[in-house]
Amino acid sequence: VLRDAALRAAGSSRSAARQVVDERGEDAWLASDEHKFSFVRVDNAAQIVFALECGRQRCATDTDMLSLAREVQSRVPAASKDRSRMPELLAPADVPGWKQLPAPPSPERHEYDRMRLDGSIRDAAYSLNLWVWRHPSEGLDAKLQALVGAMRDATPDEQVARGGFTGSAETGNGTQFVFAVPATDTVIRLECSPGLCAGPEQARALAMRAAHKAQDAGNFVDPNADRPRPYVPRGNVKGRAERIWLPLSRFWLPIR
Q1: DSSP assignment string, 11-69
Q2: pLDDT tens column, 84-105
Q3: How far is 142 from 155, CA to CA, in rounded Å?
């Protein structure tokens, strides 16, 4: 199925293609017409299938085509592990004088016609920390001053909120903001690492968003959170109940 899909993408039919075997003993397909050569290769180890087209000016014979295909195949293992290296599959040195053009958007295809690689970076350089104190026991001003006193280089910054401060993060070279929101009796501290916030402006934008959200106390409540419900006897239920909580004892019957 993968070979047929790739051959259709290359504009060749399976009947017009001939099967070739590479140095690793795996199958590939080579097709040609009066204008170009088309090569299809399925790499089972890397879980990648690619179709390569080469015009007669660059690939005069099938030997030229197979030589270019081997260069592309040698870069597949690295590209399968890092999707940012996909453009390296075909290097400028492979086709001297070429001009890279953006690919036109293709219609949505089946799952086997697409490839998606997801990755995550687990590093302190890519982190965002947010602390929120609601109704601090020592009061807004005292809590704010305590946080500012723990900062290395606190500087007044009222762009986020009145009476706010900014400074370097406790770890790394990031930026942190400390400010109070009197409307909801809240103190907020936000710390953004350099991987996510390249400069203070990016961190300030996130702090302003947090300050705006903190103006409404309803944003601190999760509407989907489970809340305790009263115990309802089975015989006293009238109409349609959303959820019934029953203690499992001999005087109560569990709902089956």
Answers
A1: T--TTT-EEEE-TTS-EEEEEE-SSEEEEEEEETTTTEEEEEEEETTT-SSHHHHHHHH
A2: 788 788 887 787 777 766 666 6
A3: 17
